[in-house]
Amino acid sequence: MFQFFKRVKTVVSSELNSMLDKAEDPVKMLDHFMRDMAEDIREAETAVAKQIANEKMLKRKYDDAEALVQKRQQQAEQAIEAGNEDLARRALEDKKDHEANAVSLKESWERTKSDADALREKLDEMKKEYQQMQLKKDSLKARAESAKARTKMNRSLSSIDNNQSKRGFERMEEKVLRFEAEADTSEDISQASKTLDDEFKDLEKSSVDSELEELKKKLGK
Fold it and tell me: pTM value?
C-alpha cells in the first residue's frame, strides 16, 4: 500500500490505523490522504510529460543527424561521379562527424526513452493504486459513519435509561397515584360521615327522581 507515494509511503497499515484512532475525524484524515496521493500523481504526470518531451527532442535530433549522414554519403558519391575527389573527401569527413554525433544522440535517446517508459509504467501503477485506495476510503467512510450512528444511538438509549427527565416523570406518576389514593380515601371518609337524616334525604331524592322518570315516560317526553 502507498508503494509509489512519497508523502505517505512510510505509513504502513498499522500506523494508518493508529493515526485514524487518534484522529478526531477519521473521514477527514482519509480525505487528507487521498488529496496527498492525488497531488503525487499530478507531480508524477508532470515529470513523465517532461521526460517524454526530452525523449521526443532527442529522437528528432538523432533523426536529423542520421539524415545528414545519408546526405553526405550521397554527396560524396555525387562528387566522385563528377571527378571531384577533394569535394568527396570533405563530404566524407563531415559525414564522419555526423555519424559520431548520431551515435551519441542515439544513446541519449534510448536511455531517455527507457526512463520515460519506466516512469509511464510507475504512473499507471500509481493511478491503479489510487483507484483501489479510493474504493477502500469509501468503504472506511461508510463504516465510520455507521459506527458514529451506532455510538450516538447507544448514548441516547443510555441517557434515556439514566436521565433526570425519566426519573422526574416517574416521580410525577407517583404523585398522581398518591392524589388518586387521597381522593378515594376522602370519598370513603365523606360517605362514612353521613348522618341518618342525610341517608333518608338521599333516599327521598332517589324516590322523587324515579317518579319524575315515570312521569316523563307517561307524557312521551
Answer: 0.52
C-alpha to C-alpha distance for 16 and 104, rounded to whole angstroms: 48
Is residue 9 a contact partner of residue 2, using CB atoms and an 8 Å limit?
yes
pLDDT over 90 at 164, yes or no = no
Query: Does residue 128 have a pLDDT over 80?
Result: yes
* 81-100 mean pLDDT: 92
Q: C-alpha cell of 162?
A: 439514566
Residue 79's identity, in one-letter code, is: A
Residue type, 25: D
Amino acid sitting at position 8: V
Question: Residue holding cell 392524589?
Answer: 179
What's the CA gap between 98 and 89, in Å, rounded? 14
E-assigned strand segments in the chain: none
The three cell numbers locating residue 137:
476510503
Cell numbers standing for residue 139: 468503504
Which three three-digit cell numbers place residue 17? 490505523
Could you tell me the maximum CA-CA distance found in the chain, to the nearest angstrom? 167
Q: Distances from the Cα of 139 to the Cαs of 13, 127, 136, 172, in angstroms?
A: 16, 19, 5, 48
Contact 126, 75 (CB under 8 A): no
Instruction: With beta carbons less than 8 A apart as the criterion, state whether 44 and 126 touch.
Output: yes
Q: Look at residue 6 in the predicted model and tell me its pLDDT.
A: 53
